[in-house]
Protein backbone atom coordinates (compact mmCIF):
# COMPACT_ATOMS: atom_id res chain seq x y z
CA UNK A 1 0.00 0.00 0.00
CA UNK A 2 1.24 3.49 -0.89
CA UNK A 3 2.82 5.30 2.04
CA UNK A 4 0.76 8.12 3.50
CA UNK A 5 1.95 11.67 2.98
CA UNK A 6 0.78 14.39 5.35
CA UNK A 7 0.37 18.12 4.75
CA UNK A 8 0.25 20.69 7.55
CA UNK A 9 -3.07 22.53 7.25
CA UNK A 10 -3.37 26.32 7.18
CA UNK A 11 -4.94 27.51 10.45
CA UNK A 12 -5.67 31.20 10.90
CA UNK A 13 -4.07 32.61 14.03
CA UNK A 14 -2.12 29.45 14.67
CA UNK A 15 0.20 28.22 11.89
CA UNK A 16 2.27 31.33 11.34
CA UNK A 17 5.89 31.37 10.20
CA UNK A 18 7.32 30.33 13.58
CA UNK A 19 4.77 27.56 14.16
CA UNK A 20 5.40 26.19 10.66
CA UNK A 21 9.12 26.18 11.34
CA UNK A 22 8.69 24.48 14.71
CA UNK A 23 6.27 21.78 13.61
CA UNK A 24 8.14 20.87 10.44
CA UNK A 25 11.27 20.30 12.52
CA UNK A 26 9.32 18.02 14.87
CA UNK A 27 7.71 15.86 12.14
CA UNK A 28 8.13 15.10 8.45
CA UNK A 29 5.55 16.86 6.26
CA UNK A 30 5.17 16.69 2.50
CA UNK A 31 4.58 20.45 2.58
CA UNK A 32 2.76 23.07 4.65
CA UNK A 33 0.33 25.84 3.71
CA UNK A 34 0.31 29.38 5.06
CA UNK A 35 -2.60 31.06 6.77
CA UNK A 36 -4.71 32.76 4.09
CA UNK A 37 -3.64 36.08 2.63
CA UNK A 38 -6.82 38.04 1.99
CA UNK A 39 -7.06 39.68 -1.43
CA UNK A 40 -9.70 42.41 -1.56
CA UNK A 41 -9.58 45.59 -3.62
CA UNK A 42 -6.03 46.02 -4.86
CA UNK A 43 -2.82 44.18 -5.53
CA UNK A 44 -0.84 43.97 -2.31
CA UNK A 45 2.77 45.20 -2.21
CA UNK A 46 5.69 42.79 -2.15
CA UNK A 47 6.36 43.68 1.47
CA UNK A 48 2.99 42.26 2.50
CA UNK A 49 3.71 38.94 0.79
CA UNK A 50 7.14 38.75 2.43
CA UNK A 51 5.76 39.61 5.86
CA UNK A 52 2.98 37.03 5.52
CA UNK A 53 5.32 34.34 4.17
CA UNK A 54 8.94 34.98 5.20
CA UNK A 55 9.88 31.65 3.62
CA UNK A 56 9.78 33.44 0.25
CA UNK A 57 13.26 34.65 1.21
CA UNK A 58 14.49 31.07 1.62
CA UNK A 59 13.31 29.35 -1.57
CA UNK A 60 9.76 28.90 -0.25
CA UNK A 61 10.94 26.41 2.37
CA UNK A 62 11.04 26.18 6.13
CA UNK A 63 14.42 26.06 7.85
CA UNK A 64 14.59 22.27 7.50
CA UNK A 65 13.65 22.32 3.81
CA UNK A 66 9.90 21.61 3.95
CA UNK A 67 8.12 23.33 1.02
CA UNK A 68 5.69 26.12 1.93
CA UNK A 69 2.67 26.93 -0.23
CA UNK A 70 0.96 30.32 -0.16
CA UNK A 71 -2.79 30.37 0.39
CA UNK A 72 -4.84 33.22 -1.10
CA UNK A 73 -8.45 34.10 -0.30
CA UNK A 74 -10.67 36.33 -2.40
CA UNK A 75 -13.50 36.42 -4.92
CA UNK A 76 -12.26 38.59 -7.81
CA UNK A 77 -10.64 36.38 -10.48
CA UNK A 78 -8.38 39.01 -12.06
CA UNK A 79 -7.09 40.32 -8.75
CA UNK A 80 -6.51 36.78 -7.49
CA UNK A 81 -4.58 36.05 -10.69
CA UNK A 82 -2.42 39.17 -10.31
CA UNK A 83 -1.71 38.25 -6.69
CA UNK A 84 -0.70 34.71 -7.63
CA UNK A 85 1.56 36.09 -10.37
CA UNK A 86 3.25 38.39 -7.85
CA UNK A 87 3.81 35.44 -5.52
CA UNK A 88 5.32 33.50 -8.41
CA UNK A 89 7.70 36.39 -9.13
CA UNK A 90 8.78 36.23 -5.49
CA UNK A 91 9.61 32.52 -5.80
CA UNK A 92 6.61 30.77 -4.26
CA UNK A 93 6.65 26.96 -4.46
CA UNK A 94 2.89 26.65 -5.03
CA UNK A 95 -0.35 28.62 -4.70
CA UNK A 96 -3.47 27.37 -2.93
CA UNK A 97 -6.90 29.04 -3.09
CA UNK A 98 -9.14 29.06 -0.02
CA UNK A 99 -12.78 28.13 -0.61
CA UNK A 100 -13.10 26.43 2.77
CA UNK A 101 -12.90 29.00 5.56
CA UNK A 102 -16.23 28.96 7.47
CA UNK A 103 -15.61 32.15 9.53
CA UNK A 104 -18.53 34.58 9.37
CA UNK A 105 -16.21 37.59 9.19
CA UNK A 106 -14.67 36.11 6.03
CA UNK A 107 -17.87 34.78 4.48
CA UNK A 108 -19.78 38.07 4.74
CA UNK A 109 -17.23 39.58 2.35
CA UNK A 110 -17.67 36.73 -0.18
CA UNK A 111 -14.56 34.86 0.87
CA UNK A 112 -13.78 31.26 1.71
CA UNK A 113 -16.67 28.82 1.98
CA UNK A 114 -19.22 31.49 1.04
CA UNK A 115 -18.37 30.75 -2.61
CA UNK A 116 -19.30 27.07 -2.45
CA UNK A 117 -22.68 27.75 -4.05
CA UNK A 118 -20.98 29.42 -7.03
CA UNK A 119 -19.07 26.72 -8.95
CA UNK A 120 -18.87 28.99 -12.00
CA UNK A 121 -17.01 31.62 -10.01
CA UNK A 122 -14.75 28.97 -8.49
CA UNK A 123 -13.87 27.88 -12.02
CA UNK A 124 -13.16 31.47 -13.11
CA UNK A 125 -10.89 32.10 -10.13
CA UNK A 126 -8.98 28.84 -10.51
CA UNK A 127 -8.67 29.23 -14.27
CA UNK A 128 -7.42 32.82 -13.97
CA UNK A 129 -4.86 31.88 -11.33
CA UNK A 130 -3.68 28.85 -13.28
CA UNK A 131 -3.14 30.94 -16.40
CA UNK A 132 -1.29 33.66 -14.47
CA UNK A 133 1.23 31.32 -12.86
CA UNK A 134 4.04 29.49 -14.70
CA UNK A 135 3.04 25.91 -15.40
CA UNK A 136 5.83 24.48 -13.23
CA UNK A 137 4.26 26.08 -10.14
CA UNK A 138 1.35 24.00 -8.81
CA UNK A 139 -2.01 25.68 -8.29
CA UNK A 140 -4.48 24.00 -5.93
CA UNK A 141 -7.67 24.69 -3.99
CA UNK A 142 -9.25 23.79 -0.69
CA UNK A 143 -13.01 23.40 -0.33
CA UNK A 144 -15.60 21.98 2.04
CA UNK A 145 -18.44 19.61 1.15
CA UNK A 146 -20.80 22.55 0.66
CA UNK A 147 -22.51 25.33 2.57
CA UNK A 148 -25.38 23.52 4.27
CA UNK A 149 -25.27 20.22 2.36
CA UNK A 150 -23.32 18.44 -0.36
CA UNK A 151 -25.58 19.52 -3.22
CA UNK A 152 -22.85 21.52 -5.00
CA UNK A 153 -19.92 19.25 -4.12
CA UNK A 154 -19.62 17.44 -7.43
CA UNK A 155 -19.95 20.68 -9.44
CA UNK A 156 -17.28 22.36 -7.30
CA UNK A 157 -14.89 19.44 -7.70
CA UNK A 158 -15.48 19.44 -11.46
CA UNK A 159 -14.93 23.23 -11.60
CA UNK A 160 -11.54 22.95 -9.90
CA UNK A 161 -10.54 20.05 -12.15
CA UNK A 162 -11.65 21.77 -15.35
CA UNK A 163 -9.40 24.72 -14.48
CA UNK A 164 -6.39 22.36 -14.73
CA UNK A 165 -5.66 22.56 -11.01
CA UNK A 166 -2.83 20.43 -9.64
CA UNK A 167 -4.87 18.93 -6.79
CA UNK A 168 -7.83 19.61 -4.52
CA UNK A 169 -8.07 19.34 -0.75
CA UNK A 170 -11.54 18.58 0.62
CA UNK A 171 -12.48 19.21 4.25
CA UNK A 172 -15.13 16.60 5.01
CA UNK A 173 -17.62 18.98 6.65
CA UNK A 174 -20.00 21.67 5.39
CA UNK A 175 -19.57 25.37 6.11
CA UNK A 176 -22.52 25.38 8.50
CA UNK A 177 -20.95 22.56 10.53
CA UNK A 178 -17.87 24.61 11.27
CA UNK A 179 -15.68 22.12 13.11
CA UNK A 180 -18.48 20.11 14.72
CA UNK A 181 -18.76 16.35 14.10
CA UNK A 182 -19.38 14.28 12.20
CA UNK A 183 -17.06 14.30 9.21
CA UNK A 184 -18.17 12.60 6.00
CA UNK A 185 -15.09 11.00 4.47
CA UNK A 186 -17.35 8.93 2.20
CA UNK A 187 -18.37 12.12 0.38
CA UNK A 188 -14.74 12.62 -0.64
CA UNK A 189 -14.66 9.13 -2.11
CA UNK A 190 -17.91 9.81 -3.96
CA UNK A 191 -16.48 13.04 -5.40
CA UNK A 192 -13.51 11.29 -6.99
CA UNK A 193 -15.38 10.38 -10.16
CA UNK A 194 -15.92 14.10 -10.83
CA UNK A 195 -12.24 15.01 -10.40
CA UNK A 196 -11.21 13.83 -13.88
CA UNK A 197 -7.99 12.32 -12.55
CA UNK A 198 -7.04 15.32 -10.40
CA UNK A 199 -5.51 14.13 -7.10
CA UNK A 200 -7.62 14.64 -3.98
CA UNK A 201 -6.34 15.32 -0.47
CA UNK A 202 -8.56 14.45 2.50
CA UNK A 203 -8.91 16.72 5.53
CA UNK A 204 -11.00 16.66 8.67
CA UNK A 205 -10.85 14.78 12.01
CA UNK A 206 -7.53 13.07 11.33
CA UNK A 207 -6.39 12.99 14.94
CA UNK A 208 -4.53 9.69 15.35
CA UNK A 209 -2.74 6.94 13.45
CA UNK A 210 -5.95 4.91 13.42
CA UNK A 211 -8.07 7.76 12.03
CA UNK A 212 -5.43 8.50 9.37
CA UNK A 213 -5.55 4.92 8.14
CA UNK A 214 -9.35 4.87 8.29
CA UNK A 215 -9.54 8.09 6.28
CA UNK A 216 -7.21 6.68 3.65
CA UNK A 217 -9.21 3.46 3.43
CA UNK A 218 -12.54 5.27 3.02
CA UNK A 219 -11.47 8.14 0.75
CA UNK A 220 -8.77 6.41 -1.26
CA UNK A 221 -6.51 9.44 -0.60
CA UNK A 222 -2.83 8.70 -0.01
CA UNK A 223 -2.18 12.33 0.97
CA UNK A 224 -3.91 13.73 4.03
CA UNK A 225 -4.04 17.23 5.49
CA UNK A 226 -3.86 17.47 9.28
CA UNK A 227 -4.65 20.58 11.30
CA UNK A 228 -5.11 20.99 15.05
CA UNK A 229 -3.99 17.47 15.89
CA UNK A 230 -0.60 18.29 14.40
CA UNK A 231 -0.28 21.15 16.89
CA UNK A 232 -1.59 19.31 19.94
CA UNK A 233 0.53 16.24 19.11
CA UNK A 234 3.73 17.52 17.45
CA UNK A 235 5.02 14.01 16.80
CA UNK A 236 1.79 12.64 15.33
CA UNK A 237 2.80 13.01 11.70
CA UNK A 238 5.89 10.85 12.15
CA UNK A 239 3.69 8.30 13.89
CA UNK A 240 1.47 8.28 10.79
CA UNK A 241 4.06 8.21 8.04
CA UNK A 242 7.10 6.74 9.79
CA UNK A 243 5.51 4.42 12.36
CA UNK A 244 7.36 6.07 15.25
CA UNK A 245 6.20 6.46 18.84
CA UNK A 246 4.67 9.64 20.24
CA UNK A 247 7.02 12.41 21.32
CA UNK A 248 7.73 12.43 25.04
CA UNK A 249 6.61 15.39 27.15
CA UNK A 250 10.22 16.59 27.66
CA UNK A 251 10.63 16.72 23.87
CA UNK A 252 7.37 18.62 23.41
CA UNK A 253 8.23 20.97 26.28
CA UNK A 254 11.58 21.71 24.66
CA UNK A 255 9.83 22.58 21.38
CA UNK A 256 7.50 24.94 23.21
CA UNK A 257 10.35 26.57 25.12
CA UNK A 258 12.18 27.27 21.86
CA UNK A 259 8.94 28.58 20.35
CA UNK A 260 8.58 30.98 23.28
CA UNK A 261 12.19 32.14 23.00
CA UNK A 262 11.91 32.79 19.25
CA UNK A 263 8.53 34.54 19.30
CA UNK A 264 8.38 38.23 18.51
CA UNK A 265 5.77 40.71 19.64
CA UNK A 266 4.39 42.34 22.75
CA UNK A 267 3.92 40.56 26.08
CA UNK A 268 0.23 39.78 25.65
CA UNK A 269 0.71 38.34 22.17
CA UNK A 270 3.71 36.20 23.05
CA UNK A 271 2.27 34.93 26.33
CA UNK A 272 -1.09 34.29 24.72
CA UNK A 273 0.37 32.23 21.88
CA UNK A 274 2.45 30.15 24.30
CA UNK A 275 -0.58 29.46 26.51
CA UNK A 276 -2.65 28.60 23.45
CA UNK A 277 -0.23 25.89 22.36
CA UNK A 278 0.27 24.65 25.90
CA UNK A 279 -3.50 24.29 26.38
CA UNK A 280 -3.77 22.32 23.14
CA UNK A 281 -1.03 19.87 24.13
CA UNK A 282 -2.67 19.49 27.55
CA UNK A 283 -5.32 17.38 25.80
CA UNK A 284 -2.68 14.67 25.30
CA UNK A 285 0.00 15.33 27.93
CA UNK A 286 -0.96 15.49 31.65
CA UNK A 287 2.33 17.29 32.30
CA UNK A 288 1.24 20.05 29.92
CA UNK A 289 -2.02 20.44 31.82
CA UNK A 290 -0.12 20.75 35.10
CA UNK A 291 2.31 23.27 33.58
CA UNK A 292 -0.58 25.29 32.15
CA UNK A 293 -2.14 25.56 35.60
CA UNK A 294 1.16 26.88 36.95
CA UNK A 295 1.57 29.57 34.30
CA UNK A 296 -1.98 30.52 33.32
CA UNK A 297 -1.91 33.79 35.32
CA UNK A 298 1.47 34.96 34.02
CA UNK A 299 1.21 38.08 31.86
CA UNK A 300 4.77 39.01 30.89
CA UNK A 301 7.25 37.40 28.54
CA UNK A 302 10.07 37.56 31.11
CA UNK A 303 8.05 35.73 33.76
CA UNK A 304 6.91 33.14 31.24
CA UNK A 305 10.46 32.45 30.08
CA UNK A 306 11.50 31.84 33.68
CA UNK A 307 8.53 29.57 34.35
CA UNK A 308 8.97 27.62 31.10
CA UNK A 309 12.59 26.89 31.96
CA UNK A 310 11.62 25.00 35.13
From TrEMBL:
Active site positions: 101
Catalytic activity: 5,6-dihydrouridine(16) in tRNA + NADP(+) = uridine(16) in tRNA + NADPH + H(+); 5,6-dihydrouridine(16) in tRNA + NAD(+) = uridine(16) in tRNA + NADH + H(+)
Similarity comment: family membership: Belongs to the Dus family. DusC subfamily. Belongs to the dus family.
Keyword terms of this UniProt record: Flavoprotein, FMN, NADP, Nucleotide-binding, Oxidoreductase, RNA-binding, tRNA processing, tRNA-binding
Record's protein name: tRNA-dihydrouridine(16) synthase
Annotated site residues (Interacts with tRNA) in this chain: 38, 98, 179, 273, 275, 296
Enzyme Commission designation: 1.3.1.-
One MF annotation (Gene Ontology) recorded for this entry: FMN binding
Species the sequence originates in: Paraperlucidibaca baekdonensis
Amino acid sequence: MEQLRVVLAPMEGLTDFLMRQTLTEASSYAWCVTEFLRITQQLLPESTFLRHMPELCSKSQTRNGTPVHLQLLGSEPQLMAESAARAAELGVAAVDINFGCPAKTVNKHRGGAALLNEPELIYKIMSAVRQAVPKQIPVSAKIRLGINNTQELFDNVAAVAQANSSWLTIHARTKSQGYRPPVDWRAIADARCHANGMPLIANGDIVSVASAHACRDITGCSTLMVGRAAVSQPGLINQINRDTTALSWPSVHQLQQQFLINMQGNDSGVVGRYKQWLAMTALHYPEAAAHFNRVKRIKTRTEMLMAAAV
